[in-house]
Design a protein that fits this description.
By secondary structure, this protein is α/β, with parallel strands linked by helices. The chain has helices at 13-22, 41-50, 60-69, 102-108, 117-132, 153-161, 185-191, 228-238, 250-254, 293-308; strands at residues 4-8, 29-31, 53-56, 77-80, 92-93, 111-113, 142-148, 173-175, 199-205, 211-218, 245-247, 270-276, 282-289.
Length: 310
């Protein structure tokens, strides 16, 4: 019998992308709810409890409500793409490449919290340096990032694409999260193994999908022996053998004149770069990904496949 998958919130941006990725797959059975019935709580509850894996593509409060709908007497497993459970120790964090044990934890878990798009890039850069001992836990990390506007969901898509929208956005690029209270910060701190909350400055560009995440570092404030080469080696060793996360060669990085935010749009991959000049005082770590790929829907499907192998 094929595993049954229910996407709760399948008509939203992330849910639609997950359905697209699963189109044509014959190894699973997709349970679906008509858009007109998406607020039918009884029908949602039946589908949630009838699935082998439920993927929640909902706002935080609705995701918590959906989890509460699942009976403790069945074996339904859940992937939550919201922010609601990402720092909950009872949930496996769904970044399979975060460390060597993480894919196994995801595979065995009943509850998996899908990472945020910005944290995927930031943690992807920070965690290997913490694990290798290069990055002190109290380093004052800054994370500067730009995302495609689809990360804001249907409302922002309409604001960016419809000039007649009452709150249309015509800016080619804008900063937000100005009070420095972005909901992704706790996730970056906890899974980045940081003692101090990072200073996070997010922005949005007028392109649908794509993302650049930057983490600049002062070498003198890292642990003894840190250099452009040792940082690159730590990242390369951490992701050796991975097919989704690629650490770009230093020579190739040195030849790059610019990083294109949309290079990996419509893929589920992530590229990591170490930029700088040998012997200088700084490095700039850069993650390139699709905010709806490895940053959301692509990661959810990856986690689902790991759970199906258990």
């Amino acid at each position: 019998m094929k595993p049954k998958i229910f996407i709760d919130g399948e008509h939203g941006t992330t849910g639609l992308q997950i359905r697209t990725r699963m189109a044509g797959r014959s190894d699973v059975e997709l349970l679906s709810i008509p858009e007109a019935e998406r607020r039918n709580a009884a029908l949602r509850e039946d589908l949630l409890n009838g699935a082998d894996i439920a993927i929640l593509c909902l706002p935080d409060d609705a995701a918590k409500e959906a989890v509460a709908m699942v009976s403790g007497n069945n074996s339904v497993r859940i992937i939550d793409t919201s922010t609601a459970h990402r720092v909950n120790p009872d949930w496996a964090y769904g970044f399979a490449e975060m460390d060597q044990a993480q894919a196994g934890k995801i595979s065995a878990a009943r509850y998996v919290a899908n990472p945020g798009c910005y944290p995927t890039g930031a943690i992807g850069l920070i965690r290997p340096l913490r694990a290798s001992g290069i990055l002190p836990e109290d380093y004052p990390i800054t994370v500067n990032a730009v995302s495609g506007y689809t990360g804001g969901g249907k409302q922002m898509i309409a604001q960016m694409e419809d000039p007649s929208h009452p709150d249309a956005i015509d800016a080619p690029h804008f900063l937000y999260g100005l009070p420095l209270k972005h909901k992704h910060v706790p996730e970056m701190q906890i899974h980045g193994l940081l003692q101090r909350a990072p200073l996070f400055s997010p922005s949005v560009g007028k392109f649908p999908q794509g993302m650049i995440v930057q983490v600049p570092l002062y070498l003198a404030d890292l642990n003894v022996g840190a250099s452009l080469g040792s940082i690159h080696a730590a990242l390369s060793d951490h992701y050796a053998g991975q097919d989704i996360v690629e650490v770009v060669d230093l020579k190739e990085s040195a030849a790059i004149a610019r990083v294109n935010a949309v290079e990996l749009a419509n893929t589920d991959r992530m590229k990591l770069f170490v930029f700088g000049t040998a012997g200088s005082a700084h490095v700039n770590l850069v993650a390139l990904l699709d905010n709806l790929g490895k940053g959301a829907s692509g990661a959810a499907v990856q986690n689902m496949d790991l759970m199906l192998r258990a």
